[in-house]
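Question: does this match?
>
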Amino acid sequence: MGVFLREIIQNAPSSGIPLDEVRLGLKERLQNTGTTMSTYSSTDMQEEVLPPSWTNVLTEVNDSHYVCAGILYPFNWEEIMRSVAVSMPPEGVTEKEFINRIVRLESKFSSSSLSLHGPVSEWVQRWFSHIFHVSRSAATGVPIYRLVEEPMSPEAESISRALQLLGRGKLPVYTDLALIAPLLPTSINPGKGGWMSFLERDDVQRYFDVNVEAFVRISPDRSPSTVCVDATSVDVARIDEILAAKGLLDSLCSVKLFRRADGPSRSADDVVMQSFLDPEHAIGAAIASFGKESDVNVYVLCGDAVKDRYKVALADLLGHEGSKIKICTPNTEEMEAPVR
């Protein structure tokens, strides 16, 4: 009988078919095959080929239809269940919310047990246990519907156990990898230098959000530098060439050009000196503004002819222990600190 019912449902219009028509169609098919389902022995009653409880057989095929107001609607429940699963939260939903999600996709569906010829929870467990896991709330006893989780990879399972040990199994917070690493098995732990490729694996990112924070510090062997260039004694066009030769042209080095109003420019940050101010005094004032405790290395690039003037001017201004000021010229390989 179930086979005949499925055939009738498959051929039914999407607008539905009355249950009376389903009964007549089923009766006709049974008669055509010579099958009798009657329990009556009287010859006069043999025409009743369907028992009064024939609708119970509908439960055998309720994965392909539902009933509303005496109308049977053919329905692709597999497709609709997968649509419901897409938006299902990890913690699951109650039966009321589960049914509401179905109704949003199929408005004619009713939460009544008559729609599926039985409880929704039993129906889901019978036909869609591969998509949903049904349990009951320990507090209220109402059914709870959760997604059936795919088995985690060993890597993801190890991370999950580590988070549980740290008390963060279900908390929506990030956990420092330094806390997780010691709790991972040796066979899983990628070790130093291998964490990025480990966390980028699909079988890890499928279950966890990975947030990368980069921390940068200056190497103890490298400190930020500022080069003050006297454009009145150095060819501005050669500045990059000169600094590159001295190893000062990199991201840790800033260049400040001191020039006259009518002199060649380098950038919008150039310092234009007044005509009455000597370059060494203007540069000395700028260096003094850095402060004595500054960690910035200061280089003064000037012409060979004025080097001595800078050594004297800067010695008078910054003649203290630990000075980080050095004077260099285009033609000298070494850099000289000012005399004290």
About this structure: Residues 36-49 have pLDDT under 50 and may be disordered.
